[in-house]
Every structure is written in C-alpha cells, then in structure tokens.
C-alpha cells in the first residue's frame, strides 16, 4: 500500500483557475485554498465568511503516482471517500464519475508513472429553496451541517476527506472478510461464521479477548463466550481474527452481544381508551438480555474540516466520554458518518453508537436520482458499520416528522433506509427518525420562556420514554473567547460581528445562545464584566445539566435514555450547549455531567432552582443505581447558606439494585446575606452538591447591560 505524496490543488473560479497550491490529503480543499489566500484561522473574528465566495468553485487535485508491479501483481488506486460529486482522471483520461462521499472507489492502474487528477464539482444546492441555508442540501446525500446550523458556520467543505492510496494485489487478494454470529437465548453459546471474497482459499485464525488462539477455520462454536458490554455494565470484550493467503493478510475484531430496542416498562398501557392507535415507540435498549439506561451525548462533527479529524482526536474525545460514565453517542444525522477509527475506538471503550443517516431537518424527495444515490450511500454505510459491536441501532435522520421537514413514515427515502437496514444488518434496530412517539427533543435553555419555568421544573413535569436532545447553554471561557473575538469587540457584548457569527446571537431566537435574558433573570449583582457573565453562565449550565440528567435517570424504567445536545463542537463557539470546547477542552459542564452520570450516586429531586428567604425549601433524596448490583449508601443531608451549614438528617438507603426514593427535606429558609445556597448530600464517593439561587428578603439591585 502506497500513499501518494506531494498533492497540489487549484480552484477553477469564474475568472479562471487559481495558481496551484499545496494540498493536505486527507483534508479539505477549502482549508488549503484559504491558507494559500492568507485568510487565517477560521475560528478568529469573521474569517469564516471569507469562504462564502468559494461555494460554487470547481476544484482540482493533482499528484503523480509512480510504482512498478511485480510479476503476478496488479495495481489499484483506492479512494475511501471523496466529498461530494467528482471525476477521477488518469493521465488526462476520465476513469470515474461519481456522486457521494461514503462509497469507496477503485480504479485499476497501468505500470509506471501516472498523473492523477481528482476534479470536484461545485456543492449541490437544491432548487426547491430560495434561501441559502440547510435546505439547499435536501436533494443530495451530502450532510447538511456545512450549509449552516445554529452551532456551525456556513462553510461548505469538500475534498479528499478519507485515505487514498495505491494498493498492489495478487490473485489471492482478500476483498472482504466479515464475521457473523448468533447467540443462543441464554448467551452460553456463540456460533461464528466467516464470509470471505477471495479467489483463493483463506486461512482464518480466531483469538479470544486475551489473545489466546481458539482455532482455525471459517466456523467456530464458543461455549460460555465473553460478551461485549457497554461502559459501566461489564467488559467490552473483543475477539480478534486474522485472515491470510500466500500474499495478503487482513485482521479484525468481533464483539459478541445482542442489542435490541424493546418497549419501556409501562408503555404498552398507552394510549388509553378505545379504539387504540399507535403506542409509543420501543426505545429501551436491551443489551445481552439486560435493560440498560442509555446515558450519553449527541456526537457532531468535531471539526469544520472533517478531513482533518484523525485517530488521536477521536481517541481523546471518546476517552473523555468513557471517563464521564457515558455509554452511548447519538451520532446526529446532520453531520454524516465518521471515519472508521471512531467506531473502532467505541468498540474498544464500550460506547454504544446510534447511527443516523445523513438526513436532518429537511424534506428529502422521492425522486429516482436521489433515491439511487441514497441507496448507494446507505448500503455503503451499513456494510462499513455492521461488524462493529458498538453500533446498536440505525435511524433515518434527525427531526424529519415535523412542520419544518414535512416527512412521514410513508416518505420513500425512509422506507428505503428501513429496507436496507433489514436486508444488510437485521440484528440492529431501526427508527424512522428522532424524536418519535413518546421521545422528546428539548428544552435547550436553562429557563423556558414558553413553559415559564426552569429546567428543574420543566423536566420533573415531563414524562417521556427518552430525552434524546436537551441542552443548557453556557458562554465559552475567556481564554478561548480571545481566540475568536477581536479585543475591541469583547466587551460590552453586541449583537453583531464575531459574537453573532460565533452563535452568541440569532442562532435560535435573538438571545441564543448567549441567553443574556436568562442570565439577568438570576443575577443579583451587576453583570458588568465579561468574567462575571461567564461565571454566571457556567453556574447555570452546570446545575442545569446535572438537574436534567439526574431527573431523567429518576424517571427510569419508563424513561430509558438521556442524551444531551451536544458533546463536541466543530469550531470555537462564543456560546452554546456543548460539553467540550473545540478541539478537545472539557468545559466545567463536562465535569458536572460526569458527576451526574456516576453509576451509583446520591441525588436530590429539587422542584426549582430559585428560592427566597422565608420559603420552605423542599427536596426529595434518592439513590440512583444503574449497575444492577446491590449497593447500600448512608447519606448525610445538609444545607449551606452564607457562613452557616444546617444539618438536616441522615438517610440509610438499605440494599438496592435499582433506584430508590428516600425521605424529603422540608426546611424554612432563614434570611441570610447570600445570593446562593448549596444542598449537600454527603455519601463518600456518591456525594452530590447542588448550588441554587437564593434571594434574601432585601434583594440586591441589578443594573442591566442595556442596548448591547
């Protein structure tokens, strides 16, 4: 295998071609062009807008391939992924014309020196919309996120985003080696069989998770197999194999598990009355016969330039999720599919993956050309992912059953994807879209202006089988703000320029995601500096995320999932809902979520965030336990207000293998010189604290930051 070196690229512009410039492969050609033009870091200021002029350019990559095949060999040029519509020319002669970025392309080559050209056509833009927004992606299978979102700049990227290489092959080249298996009902036996595509006999050797050889052959029976479990439920056990011929060897891994979506406890009782219609959707994950509460985050593309994402970045991000006690990523459809390294690492670290196809918030058509490309790309996606134990379910796409997408379960794209999943990977579940019957997306702010309550109250009044998107925004830390906002714009904050472009304003409503209106609602001192605004936003984001995750867990077993919006971000946002600042810096909210997802923890159901002197403070004490193992905890409950800590009571949970409700706090709040108070549940490693808003009888006067 040989990777071509010395790539160059150029833009074919309306005024003629640009000069040739050095190109990074894998990568994105717009990044290389911007570097040649001297546009600087897209994160800074309004630099991202400089790329708008490139949207309708044609691009050309070139390199020279030099190789000599030995006797009995043939050479093949392989492209794992090129985005999005392109031609490949060898020595000036067209060899391939292709649409789609997830399908592998192969071209036989002649011996000697060959000039390779990859010509990428302008971005597809639907003619069914008059606006320059995400709807322009609705007639293509290109992920719509780069057309602009409320956390992603409009920056249409393309290019050679996956590996390209020349591979020399003998007649005994192994084109495919896949392992398929069945488990008996009590998981005491696994039957494994291998399918290969090779013109010669293939010798397959299977190894157990410790690396010990099990045997050779193309079929195996394993008694009492070690099962693959998600994070927090057991070992992510991986069997490995090698497949060899005289001239070729491939290897892979197998995770033995059974994953299903079943009805949540109590769900068959809905709807009430007669005649009965459609009940809520099955969304309870059952792994190896055990109901597992899915707790995690929405994974989005962790870079605007998706070609730049490498294994090291994936590993850091996924390890952080593992360390935060997460067990699932919902891979949001608007971002498309990740590179194989992502899924390999999720296999290894026990992070389940919910895969969405690249459809989001649009009305995708029933026309033949779109369906042809969707079938091609959907088939390639499923075949590339179906052997990963981490991949536990597929979904047609994000938010397609609503008044902005206007799709239904009769829409042909969704029926097609359902068919492909059944035919190519029937062992995994398929949902038409998210959310669907019984599930919920939202809320997305600490205070909900429609419900007129904070997230504490909002989620305690909700009853859903799964919360698969919810968020609490925060302002980015000062060090990173200085990387994106010019010094003269930093403060006072205005709804324009870099603050607006980086999603502080008008991302979703005038004040989103900065949420200055929400910050002022709880401020008892003037927010007269950027540092104060950041600290205040950080407080609300941390307590808000803790409140939602813990409440969702308390609603089990009817509720089966809590997956926040969102995990990472593709560039440095000024404000937003992510837990990780670009590229891999955990926010304080990440640490807050980490504490809220501990397998066993003391927890408090607090009816609201905002309290006043003289009110009776109430809170119900719980023990949360996701482990299915017996545990017992003693909890000392106290309230810290100002300089004084008030001991309230001690509760011993007794042995329990599930969540358990304890006693309630009822405490009349004294008047104190304080703006916050902290409920403390002291329980060793299961200790939890909740910092809440407190208002004394004489509230401080807050000066608002007006007209900014």
Kindly describe this structure:
This protein has 708 residues and is α+β, with helices and mostly antiparallel strands. It folds into 4 domains: 8-169, Galactose-binding domain-like (Jelly Rolls); 176-259, Immunoglobulins (Immunoglobulin-like, Sandwich), CATH 2.60.40.10; 284-596, TIM Barrel, CATH 3.20.20.80; 600-695, Immunoglobulin-like, CATH 2.60.40.1930. The protein has 11 helices and 42 strands. Helix 3 links the parallel strand 22 (328-331) and strand 23 (352-356). The model is unreliable at 702-708 (pLDDT under 50).
What Rg, in angstroms, do the CA atoms define? 27 Å
CATH architecture designation of the largest domain: Alpha-Beta Barrel
**End-to-end C-alpha gap:** 58 Å
The biggest beta sheet, please? 8 strands, parallel
Instruction: Please identify the structural class as seen in this structure.
Output: alpha+beta
The share of residues in helices is 10-25%
Q: Uncertain segments of ≥5 residues (pLDDT<50)?
A: 702-708
The CATH class designation of the largest domain is: Alpha Beta
CATH topology of the largest domain: TIM Barrel
User: CATH homologous superfamily name of the largest domain?
Assistant: Glycosidases
Query: Mean pLDDT across all residues, rounded?
Result: 96
Overall geometry comes to: globular
Main sheet strand line-up = 25-24-23-22-21-31-29-26
Contiguous helical run count: 11
Instruction: Please count the beta strands (DSSP E, at least 2 residues each).
Output: 42
């Amino acid at each position: 295998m040989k990777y071509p070196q010395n790539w160059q690229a150029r833009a074919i512009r309306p005024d003629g071609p640009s000069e040739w410039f050095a190109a990074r492969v894998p990568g994105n050609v717009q990044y290389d062009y911007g570097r040649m033009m001297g546009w600087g870091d897209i994160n800074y200021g309004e630099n991202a807008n400089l790329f708008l002029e490139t949207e309708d350019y044609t691009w050309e990559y070139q390199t020279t391939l030099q190789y000599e095949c030995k006797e009995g060999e043939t050479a093949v040029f392989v492209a794992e992924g090129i985005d999005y519509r392109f031609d490949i020319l060898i020595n000036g002669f067209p060899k391939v014309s292709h649409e789609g970025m997830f399908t592998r392309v192969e071209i036989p080559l002649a011996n000697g020196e060959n000039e390779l050209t990859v010509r990428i056509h302008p971005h597809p833009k639907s003619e069914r919309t008059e606006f320059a927004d995400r709807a322009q992606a609705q007639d293509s299978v290109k992920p719509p996120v780069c057309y602009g979102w409320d956390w992603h700049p409009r920056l249409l990227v393309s290019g050679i985003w996956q590996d390209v290489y020349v591979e020399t092959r003998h007649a005994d080249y192994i084109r495919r080696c896949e392992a398929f298996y069945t488990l008996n009902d009590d998981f005491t036996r696994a039957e494994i069989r291998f399918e290969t595509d090779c013109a010669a006999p293939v010798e397959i050797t299977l190894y157990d998770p410790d690396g010990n050889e099990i045997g050779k052959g193309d079929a195996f029976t394993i008694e009492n197999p070690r099962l693959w479990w998600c994070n927090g439920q057991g070992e992510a056990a991986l069997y490995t194999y090698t497949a060899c011929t005289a001239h070729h060897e491939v290897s892979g891994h197998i995770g033995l598990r059974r994953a299903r979506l079943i009805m949540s406890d109590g769900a068959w009782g809905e709807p009430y009355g007669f005649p009965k219609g459609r009940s809520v959707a099955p969304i309870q994950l059952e792994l190896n016969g055990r109901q597992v509460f899915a707790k995690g985050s929405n994974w989005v593309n962790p870079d605007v330039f998706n070609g730049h994402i490498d294994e090291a970045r994936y590993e850091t991000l996924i390890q952080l999720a593992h360390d935060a006690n997460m067990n699932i990523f919902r891979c949001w459809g608007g971002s498309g599919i990740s590179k194989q390294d992502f899924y390999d690492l999720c296999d290894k670290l026990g992070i389940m993956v919910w895969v969405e196809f690249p459809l989001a918030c649009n009305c995708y058509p029933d026309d033949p050309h779109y369906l042809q490309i969707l079938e091609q790309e959907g088939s390639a996606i499923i075949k590339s992912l179906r052997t990963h134990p981490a991949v536990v379910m597929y979904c047609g796409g994000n938010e397609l059953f609503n008044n902005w997408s206007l799709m239904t379960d009769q829409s042909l794209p969704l029926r097609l994807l359902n068919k492909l999943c059944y035919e190519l990977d029937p062992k995994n579940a398929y949902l038409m879209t998210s959310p669907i019957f019984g599930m919920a997306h939202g809320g997305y702010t600490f205070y909900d202006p429609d419900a007129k309550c904070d997230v504490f109250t909002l989620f305690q009044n909700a009853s859903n089988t799964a919360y698969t998107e919810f968020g609490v925004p925060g302002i980015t830390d000062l060090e990173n703000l200085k990387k994106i906002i010019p010094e003269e714009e930093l403060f006072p904050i205005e709804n324009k320029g870099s603050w607006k472009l980086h999603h502080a304003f008008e991302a979703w409503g005038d004040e989103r995601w900065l949420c200055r209106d929400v910050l002022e609602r709880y401020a008892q001192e003037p927010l007269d500096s950027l540092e104060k605004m950041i600290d205040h936003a950080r407080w609300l984001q941390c307590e808000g995320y803790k409140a939602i995750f813990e409440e969702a867990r308390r609603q089990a077993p009817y509720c089966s999932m809590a997956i926040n919006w969102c995990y990472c971000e593709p560039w440095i946002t000024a404000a937003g809902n992510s837990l990780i600042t670009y590229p891999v810096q955990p926010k304080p909210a990440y640490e807050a979520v980490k504490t809220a997802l501990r397998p066993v923890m003391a927890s408090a159901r607090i009816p609201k965030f905002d309290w006043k002197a003289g009110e009776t403070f109430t809170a119900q004490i719980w023990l949360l336990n996701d482990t299915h193992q017996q545990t017992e905890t003693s909890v000392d409950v106290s309230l810290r207000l100002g300089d004084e800590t008030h001991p309230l009571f001690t509760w011993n949970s007794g042995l329990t293998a599930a969540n358990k409700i304890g006693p309630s706090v009822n405490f009349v709040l004294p008047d104190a010189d304080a703006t916050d108070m902290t409920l403390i549940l002291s329980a060793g490693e299961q200790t939890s604290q909740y910092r809440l808003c407190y208002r004394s009888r004489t509230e401080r006067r807050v000066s608002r930051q007006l007209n900014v």
